[in-house]
Amino acid sequence: MQFIIYYIIIALIPIWAQVKVQRTFKKYAEVPNTTGMNGAEVARRILDENGLYNVKVVEHSGFLSDHYNPMTKTVNLSSSNYHGNSVAGAAVAAHEVGHAIQDKESYGPLRFRHSLVPVANISSNASWIFIIIGLLASQTFLLIGIVLMALGVLFQLVTLPVEFNASSRAMDQVVSLGIINNQEEHDARKVLNAAALTYVAAAAVAVLELLRLILIFTNRSDD
């Protein structure tokens, strides 16, 4: 019964976070910002103010698919944010530019996260293979799986300060440049805080799973 409750909880945490961010975004996607600037214009304005003339702003398909690509030096905005002039779109666009500013300044946690990408990709794919074998037959394989999973968890934990810092930079930029007013600042923070929940939820679930497996390994070792 305890395992059932546990799995229900770890299943509901990311679902709740996703529902929260979608509801918040949709609410403020219907609220126009007072400047009338669309997301592409907001991103371009902040980039230029920070001397990032080489970074392009491009439209990207998908809902909330917005991201910054450090390899191509592009701020990719989903169509609704690229063309729309909402408070939500301005907040998201500014957040992605926040990552571009981090990249320009060689922000430590961002660099560390980039260095972990290849390791995290391999460990996330391979960890459960070792874990399943380990749970069925071998403590050694279970330990290897736990170590690989820990590397993936580390990546998710490092992502948190990167995302929070990008949001902080975003708010500083849109306020100082007069892109949003005082009331819109409150609304924009709600959008960015809701988006951050998805990263917090993913990290929380990953940590819980890692701790559960460590407990299993420890109990088996004691036996």
What structural class do the secondary elements suggest?
mainly alpha
> How many DSSP helices?
7
Sheet having the most strands: 3 strands, mixed
Low-confidence parts lasting 5 or more residues at pLDDT below 50? none
| Quaternary assembly | single chain
Strands across the major sheet, in which order?
A: 1-3-2
| Structural shape | elongated
% residues in beta strands: 5-15%
Alpha carbon gyration radius: 20 Å
Distance N to C terminus:
23 Å
Helix content: over 70%
Extended strand count: 3
On the 0 to 100 scale, the average pLDDT is 93
SSE string, helix = H, strand = E?
Answer: HHEEEHHHHH
User: How many domains is the backbone divided into?
Assistant: 1
Structural notes for this entry:
- This protein has a 3-stranded mixed β-sheet.
- The chain is mainly alpha-helical and 223 residues long.
- The radius of gyration is 20 Å and the shape is elongated.
- The protein contains 7 helices and 3 strands, in the order H-H-E-E-E-H-H-H-H-H.
- The model has no long low-confidence stretch (mean pLDDT 93).
- It has helices at residues 2-28, 39-49, 79-83, 87-104, 108-136, 139-176, 182-222, and strands spanning 56-60, 67-69, 74-78.
- A hairpin with a 4-residue loop joins strand 2 and strand 3.
- Helix 2 packs parallel to helix 4, helix 4 crosses helix 7 (182-222) and helix 6 packs antiparallel against helix 7 (182-222).
- It has one domain.
- Helices cover 76% and strands 6% of the residues.
- Keywords: Hydrolase, Membrane, Protease, Transmembrane, Transmembrane helix.
- This is Zn-dependent protease.
- GO terms for molecular function: peptidase activity.
- The chain crosses the membrane at residues 128-155, 196-217.
- One of its GO terms (biological process) is proteolysis.
